[in-house]
Amino acid sequence: MKRTNFFRFHRIVSSPFVAMIAALAFAVPALGQKPGAALAPGEYVSERSRGLLTLKPGKSGALLFSIESVGANAHTCALEGELRAGRATLEGAEEKDPCIVTMAPTAAGIEVKGSASGSCQYYCGMRATFEATYFQPAPVCREKAVTATRNAFKQLYDAKKFAEARSTLEPLLKDCLRSLYWLDEGRIRNDLAVTLHKLGDLAGCREVLKPLANDARASNEELQDRYPPTDLESVMPIVRSTRTNLKLCGAK
Fold first, then answer.
1. Cα(first)–Cα(last) distance of the chain, in Å?
2. 86-122, pLDDT tens digit by residue?
3. Reading across the β-sheet that carries 132-134, which strands appear in turn?
4. Among 91, 145, 186, 219, which one is least packed by beta carbons within 10 Å?
């Protein structure tokens, strides 16, 4: 599944125009749907990129869809089918109880629901669901663009151009938070924190790490109770970085 926590890294060449281009692009909002409008082909993500919905043109006005999503402890959903008038009928766990998937355009995006009976759970792990509102992020907040921005930041940081590095990376947290995967947010916050430390902005460093501080101050035993095993393994590098950077920036 394409998502930001399974990065396909793309290298780009940094230039003096990176920050200016990013600033202009970040002004583009995430794209929802007009209520009552027809569903449009394209790729859509759910909040924090937990799910990916793909719509493609089918025959006789139908849409072909596929959904992949990930929940706690790396449990996943995967389903696909043909959508007509916003509705698809798929095989369920029992023959007499099919999985009915509906999709409706809203101002926030495409609202996707499954059968009230729970028959669509047939396509999901225990801790996963595909039911969500899916939307199209602004171009600069899409997976490839976020990867490119992070690569540009790294080049600037390695070149000790800390002010430019900050202005390149910081907009991701301001404008792309809705579609940023939770682990990527943690990595970006730590990258920005060390940059602010290099710039002597210790208060700013502490501020950007605030959403991560609760985990950082918890013991490893407490974190084991807080996260299921696979999520814990994924989050621990971020926790360790946050602990180090909080000390670096003078947090008590």
1. 40
2. 999 999 988 899 999 999 999 999 999 999 999 999 9
3. 87-94, 97-106, 109-113, 132-134
4. 219
